[in-house]
Amino acid sequence: MPKIKFLLADGAELALEAENGRTLMETALENSVPGIIAECNGSAACATCHVVLPEEIMVALGPISEHENDMLDFAEAPRESGSRLSCQIRVSDALDNVSVRIPAA
Amino acid sequence: MPHDVDHPATAIPGNESSIVIVGAGQAGLSTAEKLRANGFVGSLTLIGDEADAPYQRPPLSKAYLLGELERGRLKLKAEDWYAKNRIALRLGTRVASIDRGRRRVCLADGGMFAYDRLVLATGSTARKLPQAISRGLTGILTIRTLADIDTLRPALKRRGKLLVIGGGYIGLEIAAVARGLGMTVDVVEAADRPLARVASAETARAVEDLHRSRGVTFHLGKAVDELLGTDHVAGAKLDDGTIIAADVVVAGIGGMPQTALAAEAGLVVDNGMAVDAYGRTDDPFIWAAGDCANFSLPGGGLRMESVGNAIDSADLVARNIMGAREPYKPKPWFWSDQFDLKLQIAGLSRPGDTVVVRHGAGPGRSHWYYRQGQFVAVDGLNAPRDYLIGKRLLAASASPDPAQVADPVLALEALASSK
Predict the structure, then answer these.
(1) Could you write out the DSSP letters of every residue in B132-184?
(2) Which residue intervals define the domain FAD/NAD(P)-binding in the entry (chain B) (predicted)?
């Protein structure tokens, strides 16, 4: 059960215990994390689950698909080097104690 | 009088108040969530007639049917979320009637809930084939609920022949999954192209070509006279005499708003529950959101069956119940996954709109729609960047130069700053 900290757009923090195997988006949605709308329920069609992760864990998360890469280019909040769609990230121990920032739209 | 400021229905519900939501799909759940987010502290009851706690419906005909998404991951909220948010979730519960005079909903099992505000989020239901066509045969399915898919999946696992009646999104998504599983697939559609009512001719043609290239057989401009078989369905006879063999039939012939409860209670029903721009019915204590709500807006009535509309209209209704008084500003968008095509649509195109096709650097393409010179909608076919830029321009009421849109050399970024 990795512990994940969500840094919200308004500066607040929300610490959660996540379940391995689910997606980061599902974890956020189940816990009503503000700023993760996830209108398409995780099919990488809407870019409303955009998060920014610390650069040092990007490699551990594996490659980004071309579709996700394209979506991130024009997500509502500007893309950053740690930008990902949280629906495309499976929760694993690699995310334990990681801070996930939700960018201001 | 909905807009009488002295009417008790316009008071912001407080801690003594009770709000009841009928319908535990995406719209009902989102309404509950947003009521809490907007400071409602009173009693909150969410009533659903299905056995399952609120779950995602869109993957049912896509990833879940394919077996790529486990059942547990469909649920929208963790089990303890409801208790944590003091939301009483009543599943497997059918509401029999609304007593508007005493402000109560009466349950089929004899119970009742009193309300200060009632939100109807009853959704839509899959239209069934007429008895004259289906003839009481087994093996004829419609697609709306998790239970529907649980019935369909074993039939798909047996392979064999699938007949899809109706070339809309649900039918085509099921067709794509079934072809992927190795079934023989026939699609019968009364119009001369698939997606006739829900996509442009250009987009529909591209989708049709894709399905044909993957081995789906279309019977366009044809209708099913009757389904054949003795107990279980064995095939279909079309109106031109064609006989198609089938082991299972999926009828994807549209959704109908669930309005029986509202109609029986004497609320105005007109292609869904008639609500004003704020989401309120003609009873100021009763609101509606999602598939079942037909919003009265400056451009005419607007009823949409989409998850985006479910979330946005629920958010609007929750905020307006809590005193916001904001009219609905819909941002229509849809998506569909078929084979390796991801179709993303923003805005509402109509027959007669001018279509500009953009072939960019990648394999995908996009269709941009103009009405009286104004940009009104975009379809991205494996073109997420085009789609997102178009969506952003629509939100800003900007209208990119069609010549620039059609120019494959021009970088998309250049369009983003269109006025």
Answers:
(1) HHHTT-BSEE--SSHHHHHHHHHHHHT-SEEEEE--SHHHHHHHHHHHHTT-E
(2) 18-313
Give per-residue pLDDT as tens, B119-175: 999 999 999 999 999 999 999 999 999 999 999 999 888 889 999 999 999 999 999
Distances (CA, A) of A32 to A96, B28, B85: 20, 15, 10
CB-based contact B58 A70, cutoff 8 Å = no
Using the Cα atoms of residue B93, residue B96, residue B98 and residue B101 in order, give the sign of their dihedral: negative
Domain around A92: 3-101
Identify the residue among A16, A43, A71 best suited for mutation to test binding to B, counting B beta carbons within 10 A and taking the highest: A43
Rounded CA-CA distance B225/B240 in Å is 9
Nearest CA in chain A to B413: A74
Judge whether B403 is closer than 8 Å to chain A, CB to CB: no
- CATH number for the domain harbouring residue A23: 3.10.20.30
Q: How many domains does chain A have?
A: 1
The domains found in chain B, sorted by start residue, are: 8-125+256-321 (3.50.50.60), 131-253 (3.50.50.60), 343-416 (3.30.390.30)
Q: Which residues, 6 or more positions from B407, have their beta carbon under 8 angstroms from its beta carbon?
A: none
Complex confidence, ipTM = 0.89
User: pLDDT tier at B325 (50, 70, 90 boundaries)?
Assistant: very high
Q: What is the pTM of this model?
A: 0.93
